Automatic annotation (TrEMBL):
Name assigned to this protein: Carbohydrate kinase PfkB domain-containing protein
MF annotations from Gene Ontology: kinase activity
Chain segments annotated as coiled-coil in the UniProt record: none
Keyword terms, alphabetized: Kinase, Transferase
Carbohydrate kinase PfkB domain residues: 2-124
Keyword Kinase listed: yes
Pfam families: PfkB
Organism: Vicia faba (Broad bean)
Similarity comment: Belongs to the carbohydrate kinase PfkB family.
InterPro entries associated with the record: Carb_kinase_PfkB-like, PfkB_dom, Ribokinase-like
Amino acid sequence: MAGGSVANTIRGLSSGFGICSGIIGACGDDEQGQLFVNNMSSHGVDLSRLQKKKGHTAQCVCLVDELANRTMRPCLSNAVKVQAQELTKEDFKGSKWLVLRYAVLNLEVIQAAIDLAKQEGLLVSLDLASFEMNADPIAAVEFLAKYCEWAVVTLGSNGCIARHGKDMIRVSAIGESKATDATGAAPYVLTVNRNQSTHFSTSTVNSIANQASVIREL
């Protein structure tokens, strides 16, 4: 199954919300690469900017114990990747949002993508999540709000909190359910680039974030 926070998000936006979404990246010419293509295309994701390269597709091992606690161990060392110099303005033209996942191994690509996205007037969403991070959510959202226009911290079944300037609000999760498989469940942090403006109210952003967290946790 295709995975990763960005892949999960755009697949959910496409199939669950009917929002036109595409992926910029690369996959290998192996069986895993074909599985990725099949899974994403079956959910209506635009793959016209996905490069197929000779080599291995990135994989991730998910370890789950009897209490549904889990940890993930990605294997990226020999996986094919999109390079910063391969990105062009055309990749972003006509889009409204750029959704990224922070990774120390991809800083050059991340910076190049953000620079091009800004030139095309896109809003930038950066997922800073760590599924093994324990931090005070209030302190986290206050810290992030210093560097971006909108900062949202989702809290799984406890909903989420958001901050915009001095305005901070907490919203409960949408609906109630008992998790039977926590493999894909994880709270995550969403930030919106401060150099871009939005017309959303804080409550609207929280609602979107809560729905996004549902996508991540399915």
